[in-house]
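May I ask you to comment on the folded chain given beneath this request?
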Amino acid sequence: MSAATAHGQERPDTRGETKTLMDTTRHAVSLSYTPQELLALCNTASQEDVDIGGRYERRGGAIHVWSHRWINEATRYDSETIGSFAVSWIDNRISHIECAEGFDLADLLHELAILEEKALGRIKHGRRTDG
């Protein structure tokens, strides 16, 4: 795996507000799935979208993971993207994992394990860190 760091820049978010992006670290990975498994991961992320009380957001060819569920205005305000999984439909894999500042690859692999358990009923590539 290789890693690259991107530094903060401004961009409009999906809700029309401009915000400064946090520094991120991008890890090149090659986590292969069957087409059905990859679809299940994406469907689960959509069913648990942050706008309806979940912690995921599908946008721009990636599954983004949020720090908090948006169950009220306070959690919506405090929530930040902790990282994302870039989905490659051409070769049915997650091609890289991006970690926001303050989070590392182990944190995102833990989140992937949770998503895999929900979507696939088992862990395939993710790694639980809570024992």
User: Anything to note?
Assistant: The domain at 3-12+20-120 is CATH 3.30.310 (TATA-Binding Protein). DSSP finds three helices and eight strands in the chain.
